[in-house]
Every structure is written in structure tokens, then in C-alpha cells.
Amino acid sequence: MNEGSSKTPDQRPEHPDFWCKRFGAGTTPWDAGKVPDEFAAFIGTEAAPLRTLIPGCGSGWEAVLLAERGWRTTALDFSPLAVERARSVLAPVLGPVSTVDLICADFFQWQPETPLDLIYERAFLCALPRKLWADWGQRLAELLPAGARLAGYFFVCEQPKGPPFGILPEQLDELLASHFTCLEDHPVADSIPVFAGRERWQVWQRKD
Length: 208
Hints:
Shape: globular
Structural class: alpha/beta
Distance between the termini: 36 Å
Oligomer: single chain
Number of helices: 6
Strand content: 15-25%
Mean pLDDT: 93
């Protein structure tokens, strides 16, 4: 933030207070309250569990399904109230033998203990101000080794004011194409209202 900015932390989406305010008020229109269809289908086709990171996990619905399938998963959010909410959703699958680690941490600083196979994207990139987009793309390239994948949902449209912040196809390519190859790209049929008609399911694979 510029020194002269008049915005308080709870008005800046790059700050945890912004999201704590919304989770605290129960204002979470991005929360589908379920596992979306394409993601469920995607994990159902995998022959073996993947070591997965969910950045900006929010309520953590997808992490529940991954835990039930035995996938080693890190559900990450930098908002303490989001993590508190996720803890309640994940309660049935958390415990001494759980495959899910729920962590309150910053995606741009967190480091995995072992290499990742997958990063799942849902309402994380579109929550980031544009000034952080290049950092997001670089961070993905750092976290994912050759052959690993980025899979999830992208809010593809011209919507400069947010969150959610829309991204155009050529902007997404600029962020990813130098390090990743796009394997899948198609429209989403079960989007929640805030994303309806402007969301695409995509899978990207890290190049060698």
C-alpha cells in the first residue's frame, strides 16, 4: 500500500482483515457450500492421490472430499476467521490420522515440506488485486515441479473492479504460458451466481 493511501486494512483485499470482516459478517457470496462438479470429476479420474495445495481455501469444502479420498492436502488461508470457518466444515475429517493440514498462512510465503502434485484454484486469483497477479504466476511456477498441475476455476471476463476481479484469456496466458501448458479449458455449468456465465474450468501442467 502507498503511504498516502486512505484505505484501511479491511478495505484492501490483499490484507487478511478484508476477508475477516466478510467471514465475520457471514458475507461470503463466493462460497458454493459444496464441491463443484468439474473438480469432483477431476479427482475421480486420478489413479492415485495427489499431494494438493488449496490456497485461499475459505470454508474448505473441497478439502473434505480430498480427505475422504485419502489425498494429502494443505488447506491454506491467511484470514484467521476463514480458517476458523474451515475448521468447522472440516471437523468430521480432522484428527490424528487426517490427511488434511489446515494452516493460517500467506500463500506467497508458505513453503511445502514435500513437493506438490497439484494446486487447486477456486476464487483465489480473482480475489487478488491485479498488482499481485504476476507474483501469483511466479509463485505457482516456484511451487509446482515439472509435470505437476494447476487445476480449477477461473473468472474470465472484463471486470476490473472487485473482488472478484475478472481476468481476460490473454492476461491469464501471460501469467502462465511461459511455465505451463494448458491441457483443458471449458465453460462451467454449475457456477454460483457471482461467477455464472463467466467461469471456466482449466487444467495447466508445469513444463520441464
